Amino acid sequence: MRILNRDIVFLWANRLIKGRYSDWFVDALNELELTSCLLGILGPNHNEEEKYVLKNKPDCLTCIEYSDPMAYFKRARFFVFPAVTVFGNFALLEAMSYGVVPIITRGCDADLVVEDGV
């Protein structure tokens, strides 16, 4: 069995848009002492959520333009997706298929995808 190098603590492989609480996430990261986080995906024109994250991000946080997240799924420990709507998010499902532990918002049929505590 091959052991993967999980050097990214938290991965957010979704666009930063209203209703995904990216401001809360970046504020929470500023309170932690982490060495490697990755936050994405930035669109071609920075919206208000992206501007907030770019202005307030801690040093451990790397922001990337859109790219195929597969390589990041292989390196991540936790997939973070605090959002109003969780059900049916392909990045969440793909991350879980790579063994990345999901941290998501309760509600909005999230329990159809992730069982709390499992």
Structure in a nutshell:
Helix content is 25%, strand content 23%.
Spatial extent as radius of gyration: 14 Å
% residues in beta strands: 15-25%
Structural class: alpha/beta
The separation of the N and C termini measures: 23 Å
Low-pLDDT ranges = none
What share of the residues lie within helices? 10-25%
Order of helices and strands: EHEHEHEHE
* Number of helices, where a helix is a run of at least 4 consecutive DSSP H or I residues: 4
The biggest sheet, with number of strands, parallel, antiparallel or mixed sense and barrel status, is:
5 strands, parallel
Shape assignment:
globular
Largest beta sheet: strand ordering: 3-2-1-4-5
Account of the 3D structure:
This protein is of the alpha/beta class. The protein has 4 helices and 5 strands; from the N terminus they run βαβαβαβαβ. It has helices at 22-29, 48-56, 70-73, 90-97; strands spanning 8-13, 37-42, 61-65, 76-81, 101-104. The chain has a 5-stranded parallel beta sheet, covered by helices on one side. The longest helix has 9 residues, at 48-56. The chain is globular and about 35 Å long. The two termini are 23 Å apart.
Name some characteristics of this structure.
118 residues, alpha/beta, five-stranded parallel β-sheet, globular
Outline the fold blueprint.
Layout: E1 8-13, H1 22-29, E2 37-42, H2 48-56, E3 61-65, H3 70-73, E4 76-81, H4 90-97, E5 101-104
Parallel strand pairs: 1-2, 1-4, 2-3, 4-5
